[in-house]
């Protein structure tokens, strides 16, 4: 299907411009899926393995690129992604905003791979492949441990700090990122994904004897209003400390590089479709509630917040930001004010992350709870985690 969008002529143009060598001639391209089912939901991703020659036409060289395309098959996934304008947001981040943010922090850090080509209709984004540079995803089923979590939280703090510096230099950047995943402006399809997800989960929880039966009843009652409440927690507040949030900061939207002892030594971000200018509490809640090993999360939340603030403050100082970094009290207030988003991530995103790899589904399948409810929500890891979290969310008043 990707061959309908891309031919040798286009790839040759991309290669010539990215290598600044117009003698490049592409001889062959092989396309394979770049992610497994369940690893990516908001696009179709392919790896293009390219064979090419330069001026003399004798020595064959090879390179791989990542191609990200909007879904081509009709259905909920295509409607949701097209109407949400997710590709517009990501293209702007990759081709403009992140180029400037990377420039601010280099050589100490790099937030993203290079964007090489964009196309509006149908939406298409071609990027450098990070795998040959040594980056790979962590295991979503196990969650992040201490080494991974510290790398990820420091990287997030630098990302946020550099966005502050950039927005000081060019305040118009803020206007490019006004939505986010839980924006009230998201189309009906996006909102229904979360609303129906809460309803489906409440039906499944009725059969869980270890859970207070009042909790699934409460969830069912609030289901129709959850997205509206999330959009209020998501909203930009001018009197707060604000940053460009990644917006979908979960374990599969980051990659790590490892040393020869298999210890993570570098971190990079991928997938910027929900980037959003607002409180850093949004990224923090989403990250903590989706990506950490559950036992680690409960014991190390405060430690990670302190490390985030330490790195944020140091980076803002190094970048000579005029904006003041928040105090710990101010950060904790912003974080707690966005806790409803953490609950939404726990209820809807976490079960998808923890579905066994051989049972992973696409968005259309996830919405069909009559068939898939027990698969999505019945996994041992998710059940164990959410049973512990729901009484906490209930005490916070989120289920009323």
From TrEMBL:
Keywords: Membrane, Transmembrane, Transmembrane helix. Residues 125-318 form the CHK kinase-like domain. InterPro entries: CHK_kinase-like, EcKL, Kinase-like_dom_sf. This is Uncharacterized protein LOC105365253. The chain crosses the membrane at residues 338-355. The keyword Membrane applies. The keyword Transmembrane helix applies. The gene is LOC105365253. SMART domains: CHK. Coiled coil: none annotated.
